[in-house]
């Protein structure tokens, strides 16, 4: 692909050309950057320690191409719905390498997962164990289960993405009258293979201390399970949540910053208490894919409000990135066709959706914007496409994978026809 000076390149591709070829809005993922994150996990975790696993939390970005890529990179997978699981199976992901999370899995979802031979079930509630036992008995199958606990850890992140506090819809409370009878039930049930304990305390975390505190809670449970039931926990799942860089205010820590202290604490605890050291699983989503993705938009109308601000509107918005509207998330943007640091001016980038909260970035410093410019938003690879909606009947954008100058469409742009294909006019209105 040809390169033009002052154009933003992404994994060797000219983004302005990509916008021309595939249209905007457009999600563009650097395959090399996804591989880099996977390889860091390989080097600093999977190959460094024995008995560890990484399950990519596919909710961050779950499409066939991505699942193929992470499988090729040697990772396992975490899914949270029948739809995510279906996509994984369609991508030929090995079922044994799939873990099924979620706080309200339906009977149909559990049945499908058992039929496929999903590797782990993360039980999230008191009822779910009874439910899965019942289904297993009917199907004459067994399930490998972990219990997701609520470790009562408060994390430093947006409150909408913190999940480890006591008052949470996720997980089983750390109440021994609740938790231990459940564990006993799982150990005793012939159709259940009790594997261990799972937690996920929250997302976009910059500090390693909260994972450590939660791991300590889980390790103490391992010890108590050994003491009470003489049962060796086989596996601990420490969840995901490793933070990425959205703006200059964020620090992207290497995986080792989180994982070395976690492994050290785990190994030390098990040695001190003469416990079998369980397999350690982590479930990163965002940190594998967020920074590899950018979104391209075309700037349309520009409105100057003298003494107040300038608004530049893009041809998408909260339908392709709901994070600013939902979590006040901050982003960095650039003009893809004007790569310069000179003569920057503040401009507020607004979406085209009929909502006042549809503002992508307030007062971004950019070269003077003009209608037709291509805006690039960085770090949109996680929870962008996967949270996209058809509000205002806006079509879901296309997705492109790029690598070393080569580009390929991995999701086609949704058509208007596809948007209405499931709609039916009732007979009396025809
Ligand atoms: N494991 C479990 C059980 C989870 O609930 C999550 C995320 C992950 C792993 C992956 O977490 P990560 O490594 O991506 O932080 N839509 C929000 C994020 C919600 C995350 C929900 N659970 C956002 O855009 O910030």
Low-confidence regions: none
Terminal Cα separation, in Å?
Answer: 50 Å
Global structural class: alpha/beta
Say which CATH homologous superfamily of the largest domain is assigned.
Alanine racemase
At CATH level 2, the architecture of the largest domain is Alpha-Beta Barrel
Number of helices: 12
Percent of residues in helices: 25-40%
Strand content: 15-25%
CATH class of the largest domain: Alpha Beta
* CATH-assigned fold name of the largest domain: TIM Barrel
Mass-distribution shape = globular
The count of domains is 2
| Overall residue-averaged pLDDT value | 96
What can you tell me about this protein's structure?
This protein is of the alpha/beta class and 430 residues long. It folds into two domains: 9-28 and 292-420, Lyase, Ornithine Decarboxylase, Chain A, domain 1 (Beta Barrel); 49-287, Alanine racemase (TIM Barrel, Alpha-Beta Barrel). It contains twelve helices and 19 strands. It has helices at 15-22, 31-46, 64-72, 82-90, 107-116, 126-139, 176-188, 209-229, 255-272, 286-289, 323-327, 416-420, and strands at 9-10, 13-14, 26-30, 52-57, 76-79, 98-100, 120-123, 143-148, 192-198, 235-237, 279-282, 293-305, 309-314, 333-335, 344-350, 359-367, 374-377, 398-403, 406-411. The strands form three sheets. Strands 3, 12, 13, 14, 15, 16, 17, 18 and 19 form a nine-stranded mixed beta sheet that branches. The N and C termini lie far apart (50 Å). The mean pLDDT is 96. Bound molecules: ligand LLP. Residues 57, 60, 78, 101, 161, 200, 203-204, 239-242, 283-287, 323, 327, 383 line the site of ligand LLP. This is Diaminopimelate decarboxylase. The active site is at 354 (proton donor). Pathway: Amino-acid biosynthesis; L-lysine biosynthesis via DAP pathway; L-lysine from DL-2,6-diaminopimelate: step 1/1.
